[in-house]
Write a structure and sequence with these properties.
About 50% of the residues lie in helices and about 15% in strands. The protein contains 13 helices and twelve strands. The chain has helices at about 15-35, 55-65, 85-95, 110-120, 125-140, 180-185, 205-215, 235-260, 265-270, 270-275, 280-285, 290-305, 325-340; strands at about 1-5, 40, 70-75, 75-80, 100-105, 145-150, 155, 170-175, 190-195, 225-235, 285-290, 310-315.
């Protein structure tokens, strides 16, 4: 099972952006030394109190230059906000610089504020997503290509350079709405699923629909599923629970506000439940918090129940866990938990 970390490059109120970048990059460099499989970079716009990670490809390039073995993923690149040819060239450049370590995670994002700021109607997000992804794939794999679409047209265009990985970097697509799971299965894409507003036990029906469509379309294997979930690890179960509570509950209070304004019907419907949720309820079916042994056992259980190919561990949901315990959580994930999962 691939073990990765989802990172938002949080910026605390007492931090400068420079300090936030330095702290997060130091954690990524440590993760590379400790043997983490992948680092996944968020893309978060218009939320200065939350994150400085608005330009994941620029950060990915910096990580490529600072590390030697860790895979570098976008989790996710918001395709409707990108120019597809430029995106193809920038991602291929990162793949070249990193010597084939790019993982291309893509999605539409559930944050309409980003679309408003960029002047792109959210109602166009699905069509723009599909167009942009098709153009990127053509640009990566063909010396030159032409394309005529609703939003973009290209005549004998080419992307320079082309990717290091052949035929192209792995593509994974975020699945959130009910109808997305079978459509991505039919298309044959590996998928990301996330647990914040939903529940771990509630994933099974969506994954069943994805795999049924994947198999019916004649794709080989079962389809790949990568789960993003909140994780915190300390040396003991009790220490982990105490360290994580304030941050995680703050994260859920903030999340409820974002869910209320979400264009995703499922997420909007979950807003009220999230607003009043208790720490005990969160621990029961949304997050994994504990010492290394408990966390490894729980991840192994999920791997078997859901058929997971990997995880994206979010180690500081709520952004209030101080740097030292967060970095310790990362170290324990790499050194104590991963060996029991591989």
């Amino acid at each position: 099972m691939e073990v990765g970390v989802y990172h938002e490059f949080h910026c605390r109120p007492d931090q400068t952006p420079a300090a936030a970048f330095a702290e997060a990059l130091a954690q990524v460099e440590a993760a590379d030394r400790w043997g983490l499989d992948a680092i996944w970079l968020a893309e978060i716009h218009q939320q200065a109190r939350r994150s400085v990670l608005t330009a994941p490809l620029t950060v990915a390039s910096a990580i490529a230059a600072r590390t030697r073995r860790i895979k570098i993923g976008t989790g996710v690149q918001v395709l409707p906000l990108c120019h597809p040819l430029r995106l193809a060239e920038e991602t291929a450049t990162i793949d070249q610089i990193s010597e084939g370590r790019l993982l291309f995670g893509v999605g539409r994002s559930g944050n309409p504020r980003s679309y408003v700021a960029y002047g792109v109607p959210y109602s166009e997000s699905r069509e723009r997503f599909l167009e942009t992804l098709e153009i990127v794939k053509r640009a990566w794999t063909q010396p030159s290509f032409s394309y005529e679409g609703k939003y973009y047209s290209f005549n004998n265009a080419s992307a320079v350079p082309q990717p290091y990985q052949k035929p192209c970097p792995p593509i994974r697509v975020a699945a959130a709405s009910e109808e997305t799971f079978p459509s991505l299965g039919e298309a044959g894409y590996p998928i990301f699923v996330a647990v914040r507003s939903g529940s771990l036990s509630g994933l099974a029906p969506d994954l069943k629909a994805y795999r049924k469509a994947y198999k019916a379309a004649g794709h080989p294997g079962e389809g790949e599923v990568y789960l993003r979930l909140t994780l915190h690890i300390a040396d003991t179960d009790r220490q982990a629970l105490e360290e994580a509570e304030t941050s995680i509950m703050s994260g859920y209070r903030t999340l409820s506000t974002r869910l209320e304004n979400s264009p995703n019907r499922r997420r909007a419907a979950e807003a009220q439940a999230v607003k009043t949720i208790s720490y005990e309820e969160v621990r029961r079916d949304k997050v994994i918090i504990g010492g290394p042994e408990y966390v490894a056992d729980r991840l192994q259980q999920l791997h078997e129940e859901l058929g997971l190919n990997g995880i994206l561990a979010e180690l500081n949901f709520g952004a209030l866990i101080p740097p030292e315990p967060m970095t310790r959580s990362l170290q324990l994930l790499c050194e104590k938990v991963m060996p029991r999962l591989h």
